[in-house]
């Protein structure tokens, strides 16, 4: 009987050991699942943060590009305005020079009749038209 008791004791201890091993495996499996879940949560948080950083970088780049475009447009408008002012000053100067030329011609010439005066004015206006058309080109 002693051998049978020993055998029974051995089987009982083996079953207890197997039960402990199963419990330990369940604990290890639960811990593994917990680690996997934590890793998943952490990776989702990292992905979310990465997306937010990406969106912020894109938004900042877009804003910077829009601001640069506005600056370029503003500078172009200012340059156009400056060129218009310069052209107007040049045109005023040309008109003043032409007026002086007309006045000089009138003063130099002795006009004896209204027809002579009218002919001189017509001749000068043709010269002005010719000069303006040359400057336009």
Automatic annotation (TrEMBL):
InterPro entries: ATP_synth_B-like_membr_sf (IPR028987), ATP_synth_b/b'su_bac/chlpt (IPR002146), ATP_synth_F0_bsu_bac (IPR005864), ATP_synthase_B_chain (IPR050059). GO terms for biological process: proton motive force-driven ATP synthesis. Its main location: membrane. One of its GO terms (cellular component) is proton-transporting ATP synthase complex. It is a single-pass membrane protein. It is found in: Endomembrane system. GO terms for molecular function: proton-transporting ATPase activity, rotational mechanism. Belongs to the ATPase B chain family. Component of the F(0) channel, it forms part of the peripheral stalk, linking F(1) to F(0). The b'-subunit is a diverged and duplicated form of b found in plants and photosynthetic bacteria. F(1)F(0) ATP synthase produces ATP from ADP in the presence of a proton or sodium gradient. F-type ATPases consist of two structural domains, F(1) containing the extramembraneous catalytic core and F(0) containing the membrane proton channel, linked together by a central stalk and a peripheral stalk. During catalysis, ATP synthesis in the catalytic domain of F(1) is coupled via a rotary mechanism of the central stalk subunits to proton translocation. PANTHER family: ATP SYNTHASE SUBUNIT B, ATP SYNTHASE SUBUNIT B', CHLOROPLASTIC. This is ATP synthase F0 subunit B. It comes from Ichthyobacterium seriolicida.
